[in-house]
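Appendix B. Extra example for self-study. Work through it before the problem class; the solution is given directly after the inputs so you can check yourself.
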Amino acid sequence: MERPILEVKHFHAWFGDHEVVKDVNLTLYRNKVIAVMGPSGCGKTTFLRCINRMHELTPGARTEGEILLEGENIYEMSPIVLRLRVGMVFQRPNPFPHLTIYENVLAGYLLNNIPLSRTEKDAIVEDSLRKAALWNEVKDNLKKKGNFLSGGQQQRLCIARAIAMKPDILLLDEPTSALDPISTAGIEELTQELKKNYTLILVTHNMQQAARVSDETAFFYMGELVEFAPTRQIFTAPRDQRTQNYITGRFS
Amino acid sequence: MLVHSFKHIRHRQIRSTLIRVVIVCFTLLTLLPLLYILAYIIRRGIGAINWSFFVELPKPVGERGGGIANALTGSVLIVALATLMAVPVGLSSALYLSEHSRGKLAGFIRLCIEVLTGIPSIVVGIVAYYWLVRPMNSFSAFSGSVALAIMMLPIMIRSAEETLKRFPVHLREASLALGVPYYKTILKVLLPCSLSGVLSGIMLSIARVIGETAPLLFTAFGNPYLSFNIFHPMHSLPLLIYNYAISPYDSWHQLAWGAAWVLLMWILLLNVLTRIMIRKWSVRY
Amino acid sequence: MTALEHALKELKDDVILMWIMVEAQLQAAHKAMLEYDQHLAREVMQKEKRINAYELKIDEQCEDILARYQPVAVDLRFLLAVLKINANLERTADIADGIARYVIDAPEGFDHDLLQSTHLLDMYTEGMTMLSDTRIAFEREDTALARSIFQRDEIIDTYNLQALDIVTEHLQQGSAHIRQELLVLSIIRKLERVGDQAKNLAEEIIFYVEAKVLKHHSRKEL
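Solution. Structure tokens for the complete assembly:
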């Protein structure tokens, strides 16, 4: 049995006194797309942000329990190191406006003063942009700033920026919510390519998206992980009545 | 019914046009004094402008000619020093305030800044006098700079804080998610993106203080000779204008007008530069 | 009720309506056979058109719901089951139509003793009951009732096997109504298929309610 890439054991998260994530237990394996879905306020985004320890940046945030990245407890490693191994793409495309496209892809290295030779930089930029399906569209404009790119292209630039760091896991927080349907379809297709090299955890409030792109789906409700199973099973024969109610739209 | 509504609409249209005319008139009214002052200074001052005006020292009474070299260099030095002092303090405060917009300390700092804005310039001068001139036993450009720096702070901090606050959370998160530590995020992402706003805040505060006379009266005090020693008294343009304008000598009046012209051009230049900078360097989120 | 729930309810009502129509067809064919009522038999053949129209309607409704709502889980299984149930019901109606045709083609009425001895009447009654029971199981989502169908189908299968022997015996004993004996055998074959259809219907009901696939599995896995 291969070793899991992420293990979550009895994990809780609070904002002040309010418990938003309750006793989550989860094991994830490599090279899969795992969707995390649930109604608004169910704790899915908070949970995602705990995996790269962004949750604790909010004042009053607190966690309990273990999250192991390839066997290592993420709370025993430096958050900086963790975030180099666990990348994140956000809901709103957020390339750095003061950097060129080239610099944006390398932002993780440049801002951290990680030295790279010119050839290494060029290689990383081309490789990441190719993997993000953006290379052909921008290869002649690498020295320009990214503000002429469309929303979908900007999001792919952010994906390139994240995968340039060669992370183990890529977290995606509703990456297509702010995009039009065609860009959304492009990103969804991209996830299938990306999973060959990375493990993706994707939070979405769009059930059909979860059904389309993921191999396994986790359903969160009111802070609890209600059900975690292969996507096919969740959408044809879910075990929990709450899951069924959610996906059939019996409640919002 | 239809006939009624047409009349009603016409009344509203007339009223709308009337109010628009009133607004435009009042605006012109505010512009008028400004334009008049500008025109007057330019007209009176331009006559004094020539090369020797800029490089010569003022001549004793009776002699024709002379220049404002000492006052000009003095103003430049005092303001430059004031900026050097004010920027680190101002920027750090602005950063602190933008990062901790809630909290008791932040609220207290804001209160102090607002009070500072309202303090009369002469009071600032007196304070600098007691702080620095007395203990140092001499008037100095340094104490003048301190006084000016105190006056620059509120404008700079307000403007910088506003710019820094507008920095979107999602860009900050993007940087943090890449493993960039907090202080590096500030230095390498927040500040560069906010550069134009911060710089324009600095320029505006400079423009505000270069014409201040009262704080320099008992700090820099004035110097008839050209001096680069900041711990000795130093002359400045506003001081020169003040002294020469109330003197009975025509030649000195002429110099004062010229100096006023120079000041005006300097302020205009700063404002124009600020606008260009904002347009060229501002980063759209 | 959401739009989807509303559409599903309408669909279910339509399916039940078709089910009742098919039951009525079987009953009418039964009566026509017993009473040699060729007029009634012709009515059965007429009504067959209505049933075909209903089959198309239900198929279309399913297609519509799938396209518009992309249902999942129990709703999806319900639609897939309805598509199959629809086809099964139509085939059952065909059987009733077939029996009615035999009645029309028969030159004389069927001998009741023959019908009795071959257990044709027993099969017919059981078949009709199985059909209406599956309908009730569908309406109430009663999988226990659905499961009871399997055993009863085995009874019909047994009758079917026995029928061949009985008819052969009759013919060897020199029965005069050879044609009738053969017709009876044909009708029995058709009734065996009614049993099969009812079994399929039961399997579909269990699939959609419990997400258990019982096709091609042995009875032991029930």
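Self-check: Chain B has two domains: 2-46, 53-281. If your reasoning did not lead you there, revisit section 3.
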